[in-house]
TrEMBL record:
This is UPF0301 protein ABS767_16720. HAMAP family: UPF0301. It holds the Pfam family DUF179. InterPro entries: AlgH-like.
Length: 186
């Protein structure tokens, strides 16, 4: 099987010294990446003071069975737009399968399903996303800044958000404390 140069279904990790404070220690679930651009959802940082119940109330949805889970900072693009990264056992009107590893939904039907207990088994909610134009991420991957690892359910749903960055590096056998914030010259 030929390895794809695209990062759909991978976790993109910001390297120390990335140079953009919005992405410091970022862990991003890559949901789409092709010749036209890329879209990922940040999974490593919570939005302070915002839980799922408050978000549901903004849509006049009773929380029902839903726990008051944290809402993640999905990225700096469209920070008021919501997304749910979830297991593939549920699908709604706009759900996208992400390389068979997880799914992405961006409409209110997934929030209603989570609240009434009929939604996906595993999920996380985020506001905003990280986006790259045509060829932009490909170019960034040739310079210091990003590292990618295969995405898996344990990283998405079984690891606390604050630990996803270092745990993702650990899956590749890397201790992020040993990474330099810049490269040398010869």
């Amino acid at each position: 099987m030929e390895e794809s140069a695209y990062l759909t279904g991978q976790i993109l990790l910001a390297l120390p010294g990335i140079g953009d404070p919005r992405f410091e220690r970022a862990a991003i679930a890559m949901c789409a990446h092709d010749a036209e651009g890329a879209l990922g959802i940040g999974i490593g940082h919570r939005i302070d003071g915002l839980g799922l119940h408050e978000l549901l109330s903004q849509f006049e949805i009773e929380p029902g069975a839903a726990p008051d889970a944290p809402v993640h900072f999905g990225g700096p693009v469209e920070p008021r737009r919501g997304f749910v990264v979830h297991s593939t056992d549920w699908s709604g009107q706009d759900t996208i399968d992400v390389a068979g590893r997880w799914a992405l939904s961006g409409t209110v039907d997934v929030l209603r399903a989570i609240a009434d207990g009929s939604g996906p088994t595993c999920w996380l909610v985020a506001l905003g996303y990280a986006g790259w134009g045509e060829g932009q991420l490909d170019a960034e991957m040739t310079r210091h800044g990003w590292f990618n690892v295969p995405g898996d359910a344990a990283l998405l749903y079984g690891t606390e958000p604050e630990r996803r960055w270092e745990q993702s590096f650990a899956t590749a056998g890397i201790d992020p404390r040993m990474l330099a914030s810049g490269g040398g010259t010869a």
